[in-house]
Specification:
By secondary structure, the protein is an alpha+beta fold. It has ten helices and 15 strands. Strands 9-11-12-14-13-15 form a six-stranded mixed β-sheet, covered by helices on one side. Strands 4-7-6-5 form a four-stranded antiparallel β-sheet, with helices on both faces. β5 and β6 form a beta hairpin. α1 runs antiparallel to α2, α1 runs antiparallel to α5 and α6 packs antiparallel against α7. The longest helix has 71 residues. The N terminus is likely disordered.
C-alpha cells in the first residue's frame, strides 16, 4: 500500500516536471509569437500606410502633369452632349466649328473634377481642387483642407497627410499646394494671383479600409500557424522528455528503490554520455563504495561486539568470583578444621550451619544468574497479591532492625499473577531499599491499589537515594554501587526483566539523601488457564523519572 502510494506520488512529480517544461516552452513560444504578431501588425500597417502615401503622391504627380498638359494646350475641347456640361466660370465656355458642331472647353479644374468622378466610381478614391478663395463654391474647403491651406501659407509645407474616417470608411487624406505658374496667369491673373502664389491645393482621398482586412487576415494566419507550432513543439518536447529524461530517470529511480535490498541492481541503469548517464555511473560507483563501507562497518561492529562481550565477561567473572570465592574460602576453612578435628562434635555442630549458609549464598548467586539468563514462560494463577507482599516483607523483617515498615495495601482480591515473579520483584526492590537505609535507618512505605485495568505496587524508602549520574544504569546487569562481595548487580536487572515479561512497567523516582520510590505497574490478567509470556511494553527513558 505504502509502495503504491509512493509510486503514484513519484509519477505525479514526474508528470508535473513534464508539464513544467511544456508550460515554460509554450509560454516562451507564445510570448515570441505575440511579439512577432505585434511587430508584424505594426510593420504591415506601416507598409500599407506607406504604400497609400506613395500612391497618393503618384496620383498627385499624375494629376499635376495632366493639369499642366491641359493648361499648356489652353484647355481641352470635347463635343457638347446632354451629359457634357458647360463651365459657367469660363469667359468662353464653348466653341462652334465650321461644321456647326459645338465644342465645350475643359480647363484643368474641370478635367480634375471629371477624372475624380471616374476614379470614385471605380473605387480608386476621389480628389478635387480647393481654395480658401474659391471661384466655384463647390471647391470650398472642408476642415482638413482649410487647416492644411492655412499651414501651407504660414509654414510653407510641401504636403500634408492624415488618416481619418470619411464616408463611413477609413481613408488617407493627402493635400499639396498648387502654386501659380507662368501658364496659369492667363486665367488666374485677373483673380489677383501672382507668379509663385498659392492659389489653392489639390486634395486627394484614398480609401485604405482594405488594409485592415488584409492585416486582420495576416494576423489570423500568424496566430493559426503559431498555435500549430506551439502544439507541435509541445508534443515533440513531451516525447523527447519522456525518451531522454523521464524514462531514464524512472529506470534510475527503480534501481535506487531496489537498492540495497537487491544489490545486484537487477533494474538496468540508464546509459549515455550525458548528465543522466553520468548520474547513473555516479550512483553505481556510490553503491560500490557503500557496499565496501558496509563490509568494513560490519567487521568493525563484529569486533566491537566481541570486545563488548569480553568486557561483559570480565565484569561477570569478577562479580561471580567475589560472590562465590568468599563463601568458598570460608567453606574450605570449615572443612579443613573439621578434617583436623574429626572427633570434635562441638566444632562440627558450629561449622555445619556455616557450611549450609555458604552453600545457600552460592546457590542464590547462581539462581539469580540463571533467572536473568533464562527466558522461561510465566506460570499464572489466581492469588492474593496483598498477601504475597506481606509474606515478602515478613521474610525481610530480620534485616529491618532500625527501619520502620508502613504497609497500606488496597488491592483486595485475587488476580492472575506469577507467584515467583511477584515475590522476586518485591524482595529485590525491598532489599535495595533496606540496604539504602542500613547506616541511618528510616521508613519503608509500601502501597498497593487497583486502578482501571492495572495493579500498582509502590515501594518507597528514605535512604541515601540514587544520583543523577547512575540512575539510568540501575537496570544494567551486574551494575552495582555496593562494595565487592556485597552484591552482584543482578537484582534490579532481574526485576526489570520480570516486569516487562508480565507486560508491565517500572518507574523510579529518586533524589540523593531524600530517598527512592519504585512503582511497579502490572496489567490485570483474567485468564490463568494457560502458560503466558507477554510481550514487554516499550518504555521511555528506561522507566526512570528523575
Amino acid at each position: 500500500m505504502h509502495a503504491a502510494t509512493e509510486r503514484n506520488i513519484n509519477q505525479g512529480v514526474k508528470m508535473k516536471l513534464q508539464y513544467k517544461f511544456i508550460i515554460v516552452i509554450g509560454a516562451v513560444l507564445t510570448l515570441t509569437y505575440m511579439t512577432i504578431l505585434y511587430y508584424t501588425s505594426g510593420l504591415q500597417n506601416d507598409l500599407v500606410i506607406g504604400q497609400a502615401r506613395h500612391q497618393a503622391r503618384m496620383l498627385h504627380r499624375q494629376l499635376i502633369l495632366t493639369r499642366e498638359w491641359v493648361s499648356d494646350h489652353h484647355g481641352l475641347f470635347v463635343v457638347k452632349t446632354d451629359s457634357v456640361r458647360e463651365n459657367p466660370f469660363l469667359d468662353y465656355p464653348n466653341l462652334e466649328t465650321n461644321d456647326g458642331v459645338t465644342l465645350v472647353k475643359r480647363n484643368p479644374a474641370m478635367v480634375t473634377r471629371e477624372l475624380s468622378e471616374y476614379a470614385d466610381k471605380a473605387g480608386f478614391g476621389w480628389f478635387r481642387v480647393t481654395s480658401l478663395k474659391p471661384v466655384n463654391p463647390l471647391n470650398s474647403p472642408d476642415d482638413f483642407e482649410k487647416f492644411s491651406l492655412t499651414q501651407f501659407e504660414e509654414e510653407n509645407l510641401p504636403e500634408r497627410m492624415e488618416i481619418m474616417k470619411s464616408r463611413g470608411t477609413k481613408v488617407l487624406r493627402y493635400i499639396a499646394p498648387l502654386k501659380v505658374k507662368e501658364n496659369c496667369l492667363t486665367c488666374h491673373a485677373r483673380h489677383g494671383y501672382s507668379l509663385g502664389d498659392i492659389r489653392g491645393a489639390l486634395s486627394i482621398t484614398i480609401p485604405i479600409d482594405w488594409a485592415d482586412t488584409v492585416i486582420k487576415k495576416n494576423n489570423q494566419t500568424i496566430i493559426l500557424y503559431g498555435l500549430l507550432s506551439i502544439v507541435s513543439v509541445a508534443g515533440v518536447v513531451f516525447l523527447l522528455f519522456n525518451v531522454l529524461v523521464a524514462n531514464r530517470l524512472s529506470r534510475l529511480k527503480l534501481a535506487m528503490d531496489s537498492y540495497p535490498a537487491s544489490k545486484d541492481l537487477k533494474h538496468p541503469l540508464p546509459s549515455g554520455n550525458d548528465e543522466i548517464g553520468h548520474l547513473a555511473q555516479g550512483f553505481s560507483s556510490l553503491c560500490g563504495r557503500l557496499e565496501h563501507s558496509e563490509k568494513e562497518l560490519r567487521q568493525a561492529a563484529e569486533q566491537a561486539s566481541y570486545n563488548e562481550k569480553m568486557a561483559a565477561l570480565g565484569q561477570i567473572t569478577a562479580g561471580i568470583a567475589h560472590e562465590v570465592n568468599n563463601p568458598l574460602g570460608g567453606l574450605r576453612n570449615c572443612v579443613k578444621n573439621m578434617k583436623d578435628s574429626p572427633d570434635d562434635l562441638e566444632l562440627h555442630a558450629r561449622y555445619l550451619p556455616l557450611l549450609d549458609k555458604g552453600l545457600q549464598r552460592i546457590e542464590q548467586t547462581m539462581r539469580q544468574l540463571l533467572n536473568f539468563g533464562r527466558d522461561n514462560p510465566l506460570l499464572l494463577r489466581k492469588l492474593d497479591v496483598d498477601a504475597e507482599i506481606r509474606e515478602c516483607f515478613a521474610l525481610l523483617e530480620y534485616k529491618m532492625n532500625a527501619i520502620e515498615l508502613s504497609l497500606d495495601l488496597n488491592i483486595a482480591g485475587s488476580y492472575c499473577i506469577d507467584t515467583e515473579a511477584i515475590k522476586q520483584i518485591v524482595v529485590n526492590i525491598g532489599l535495595n531499599g533496606i540496604q539504602a537505609m542500613e547506616e541511618r535507618g528510616g521508613v519503608m512505605s509500601v502501597n498497593s491499589w487497583k486502578e482501571d485495568h492495572n495493579l500498582y505496587i509502590r515501594i518507597r524508602d528514605t535512604g541515601s537515594g540514587i544520583s543523577d549520574e547512575i540512575i539510568n544504569k540501575i537496570y544494567d546487569p551486574f551494575f552495582t554501587t555496593k562494595q565487592v562481595g556485597e552484591g552482584t548487580g543482578l537484582g534490579l536487572a532481574v526485576t526489570y526483566s520480570l516486569v516487562r515479561k508480565m507486560g508491565g512497567k517500572i518507574v523510579v523516582e529518586s533524589s540523593p539523601d531524600v530517598g527512592t520510590t519504585f512503582t511497579v505497574i502490572l496489567p490485570i490478567e483474567q485468564c490463568c488457564d494457560t502458560k503466558l509470556q507477554r510481550e514487554p511494553v516499550e518504555l521511555s527513558d528506561n522507566g526512570v523519572t528523575q
